[in-house]
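Each record in this resource describes a single protein on a pair of labelled lines. An example record follows, reproduced without changes.
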Amino acid sequence: MVRPVAARVKALLNEFIGVLRSGVWILEGEESAGKEPLKMFFAGSEAQKSHLSELAFGGTCREQNIGKLYFLKILYLLFTNRSRCNIAIIEGSRLHRYLYKHSGDFFMPIWIKSEVSIPLEAVSKSCKSDLARIRRCNLSYEIAKEAARVDDFYHSIYRPAVNRSHGESAIEIDYETMMRMLNQGKCVLLLIMKEGITISGVLIILSATPRLWAAGVVDDGHSYQKECGAYGAIYHFASEYLSEQGYPAMHLGMSRSFLNDGILQFKNKWNHRVMGYDSSGFVLKILRASEGADDFLINNPFACLEDEKLYSMVFLQRDAEYSDKSYQRLRKRYFLAGFSGLSVFRQGTQAGDFSKVV
């Protein structure tokens, strides 16, 4: 009995030590929108490094791989900043937040969760446009539970779509997990059909609030998204199917907490509500003020966690118009139902000098 307990303690200790060790890179180039020089210190996974590289530099930057370092060494590098980095982003859990976040830093969850009441109501112009394309293309849906059809969906639709959209930053749901959930009766596959041909689909996890889990659109030379609104059709028909099964709401899955993220903005048109966030996140630190660091903040508004509540953080250029009308525009785009507030900052005359407007 002692040996299994000792082995478990040892395994937990090794896991804890592993958490305290992160891959470290220095990324350097021109900030993608403002074209000002920017140097970023990043500690975390390669997938998230690739995503931040795309976000900050448009995927074009110089990378220096420092290797895997323990947290004390990372803290030393951040404190001395001999590489003269402008910003640092550290990926991790609540433990990393405790170790790395100090006064003036930000902590943003990597993923936020949202749900929407169903059946969906087409209240926005974009929603109505989606519905018009769905009707014009005479789309329909089928529900599949056979392993062979899920296997085909995974290999011919889901994986290609995820890698096409996200490249090196893609985080795939693995095949074994997907098939295990299917075999346990915990999910169903909803396929969008056009004249008998599958053009998109989504796996739905069945629970008290069903979750849209793994989605994709076929890419075989046809522009099904542009022509038929294939992604919008996923939400529309999932809502129709699940409401017919008696569900009052559906979970829209995870979205990145950078508020200009395309998937998050796509979901915004359905009047979804944020219902929580993932425990993993980014600590964002300004190490050395610069116009490039300012541009990164201005061009990438984000959801920030303060006192376990989510707030929208928006940064404006020094010459940006600000009025009650412009505030309402910002609120419409960046404040999500379920958030606790919207904070707006305006750039001052000097780099790094932001004053809070509201």
In short: The chain has a mean pLDDT of 92. The radius of gyration is 22 Å. The chain is about 40% helix and 30% strand. The longest strand covers residues 21-30.
